[in-house]
Amino acid sequence: MSDLFAPLTFAHGAPMKNRFMLAPLTNQQSHADGTLSDEEFRWLTLRAEGGFGLTMTCAAHVQKNGQGFPGQLGIFSDDHLPGLRRLAQAIKDQDSLAVVQLHHAGNRSPKDLIGEAPVCPSDDPDTGARALTEAEVAELIEAFIAGAARAQSAGFDGVEIHGAHGYVLSQFLSPALNRRTDAYGGSPRNRARIVVEILEGVRARCGEDFLVGLRLSPERFGLELAEIRELAAQMLVHPALDFLDMSLWDVRKEPAEEAHKGRSLMSYFTELPRTHVRLGVAGKIMTAAQAREAMEAGADYVLIGRAAILHHDYPRKVAADPQFTPIALPVSRAYLAAEGLSPGFIDYMNNWPGFVAQEQKEDAL
Fold first, then answer.
1. Do 15 and 242 form a contact (C-beta atoms < 8 A)?
2. Same domain, 318 and 343
3. What DSSP character marks residue 358?
């Protein structure tokens, strides 16, 4: 148990008091204009109160046309600053690091939500997305950097760049979706160029006393494990980066690609050399034993998602019980409300099979 509750230092910025990071979780609770709602404030600050060493927001879009879902937190305008300041201060008041995840959905931005055709590295007939021009790529890079600077001015300890799950940066990494012929397409190095330029730009703009993280996922959405592993290897020694968050869907699974089966997907990343960059893993870590196993397998910290939805004080429960196991699913709407989820968030969780108990309707008389 000692490793889970040992402090974790970073090359830049403040240390985490333990090895529990709240995963960035879609919750659809903010206002339509991207400003923070009281519901999202309560959801996040309860997790900070519950003992997480780092409390991360949901994906916050850096451009208006990058919104990926209704009720998404925004960070593309100074209009968002009052809510962001309130949130950062409240999280830090609980001795938890406050971090914003910076995001753009790319071709996963619904046209009816953003009011225009979505954008993508290349034209994408399947989604109706159009290719970004070279000037728009430069604007996108600047939007991520400006979002980080806005987070810093609001008092956050750092940011995480969302390069996973088939959103715009992941689309650049995908050889299936990125068919550009300029400096941002072609070779794996060129396709990763936008990620590197954003990271280096954030570090240059925000200085040395600011955490900079990156989330990657190695499968689905046209990604190839070998390429993402090579990018992760570069990131684990990159001087601009403090932590790499690998979203694996399930930390115990084998790779989907037949050529790489026979060992855990996680092992392809935990075996990589790293210098100052801390490596975390996410993917169905539910019990205290599973959190320990991930650490013993080579992770520096763990990201907790579903278990944090079920228990706002998950780290404290693990500290009190080394054999802690979350409440069995499904759970009632009343239970989730007591854990700080708004009705809208509970409705969203109802889309996850087997998570929310289905209430029985009384028979009509």
1. no
2. no
3. P
- The band of 262, judged by pLDDT with boundaries at 50, 70 and 90, is very high
Q: Given CA atoms 45, 51, 54, 56 in this order, what sign does their dihedral have?
A: negative
pTM score above 0.90: yes
Q: What average pLDDT score do residues 217-236 get?
A: 97
* Average pLDDT of the chain to the nearest whole number: 96
Task: Say yes or no: 46 and 129 in one domain.
Answer: yes
**Residue 245, H or E segment:** strand 243-247
Name the pLDDT band for 359 (thresholds 50, 70, 90).
Answer: confident
Sequence-separated (6 or more) residues with CB below 8 Å from residue 210: 12, 13, 148, 152, 157, 158, 159, 202, 203
What span, in angstroms and rounded, lies between the C-alpha atoms of 172 and 165? 12
Q: Which domain holds residue 41?
A: 3-326
Same domain, 307 and 196: yes
d(C-alpha 180, C-alpha 349), whole Å: 37
Same domain, 321 and 346: no
Indicate if 244 and 342 belong to the same structural domain. Answer: no
From CA 96, how far away is CA 94, in angstroms rounded?
5
Q: How far apart are CA 44 and CA 36, in angstroms?
A: 11
Q: Report the amino acid identity of residue 24.
A: P
The reply to whether 38 and 125 lie within a common domain is: yes
- Do 10 and 242 touch, CB atoms closer than 8 A? yes
pLDDT one-digit tens code per residue, 291-341? 999 999 999 999 999 999 999 999 999 999 999 999 999 999 999 999 999
Q: What is the DSSP string of 149-169?
A: HHHHHTT-SEEEEE--TTSHH
Domain count, the chain: 2
Asked if 42 and 110 sit in the same domain, the reply is: yes
pLDDT confidence of residue 341: 97
